[in-house]
Amino acid sequence: DLPVIYTITPTYARPVQKAELTRLSQTLMHISNLHWIVIEDSPKPTPLVENLLARTNLNYTHLIAQTPSNYRRKGSPRGVEQRNAALRWLRKNKTMNDKGVVYFADDDNSYSVQVFDEMRFTKEVSVWPVGLVGGLMVEKPILDPITGKVAGWNAAWRPDRPFPIDMAGFAISLSQILKKSTAYFSYTCYGGWQESHILQQLTTKDHLEPKADNCTQILVWHTRTEAPKLSEENKLAARGIHSNV
Ligand code: UDP
Ligand code: MN
């Protein structure tokens, strides 16, 4: 049996949410043995996400975890509450008999179906390049030409990070998530340091498994969606007219 890919996606309500989740869900529908864990940043499950999930043919788990109000301000790390809720769910519901890999897939990135093939047989933690992040076209591990292991990174933004790598650039075996049962994301480190924070609890640099043709292929991009201009919509709303979407 193929190991299951537990794909963890935090999401929150905004005008582009349905478009983002439609795009991501239809990518995920191409992947076999995948379990989508969607965590809404909301006090209760919303019909939008509920209906969208029900219309996919995916195995999924729908959770809620609202970001505390004091961490909702600009500059706070995003997705902490939601990813931690998914980690708690995995530790509560899965055992060492379940074979799988855990991937943090934000709702706005762009994913090649190939990246899922690369991560599936991760033993501990696997890594690969991520496009359009850290002020670069690609942020990627640099491999030692002799050993083929990760020697360092090409990161330009805060290269002093212990693991200067984006959330989309690594996957963790389910067994490692279960073994290191106290590893969580934290509000005490800012955006860009979350990856280092969780990876330091789970692995060391010399254990990393380079994927995507020795980290030469870009199979995922840290794209960000522009907020649409809705000035006309807002005028209608002021007159009590609300578009049914
Ligand atoms: N997110 C969330 N609540 C928020 C902001 C973001 O749940 O208040 C989710 C978002 O949907 C995404 C992830 O957290 O899946 C990372 O957020 P974002 O893509 O905005 O971060 P960035 O692109 O800046 O890394
Ligand atoms: Mn994003």
Overview of this protein structure:
This protein has helices at 17-28, 47-55, 80-93, 114-119, 174-179, 194-202, 212-215, 231-238, and strands at residues 4-11, 34-40, 59-64, 100-104, 110-111, 125-127, 130-133, 136-139, 141-143, 150-153, 170-173, 209-210, 220-221. It is an alpha/beta fold. The chain starts with a strand and ends in a 7-residue tail after the last helix. The mean pLDDT is 97. Uridine-5'-diphosphate binds at residues 9-12, 41, 67, 78-79, 82, 106-108, 224.
Would you summarize the structure shown here?
With 245 residues, the protein is α/β, with parallel strands linked by helices. 28% of the residues lie in helices and 22% in strands.
DSSP helical segment count? 8
Order of helices and strands: EHEHEHEEHEEEEEEHHEHEH
Q: Give the strand tally.
A: 13
Spatial arrangement of strands, main beta sheet: 3-2-1-4-11-6-12
Give the structural class. alpha/beta
Give the low-pLDDT segments. Answer: none
Largest sheet: 7 strands, mixed
In one word, what is the shape? Answer: globular
Bound molecules: uridine-5'-diphosphate, manganese (II) ion
Beta content: 15-25%
Separation of termini? Answer: 40 Å
Radius of gyration: 18 Å
- Give the mean pLDDT: 97
> What helical percentage do the residues reach?
25-40%
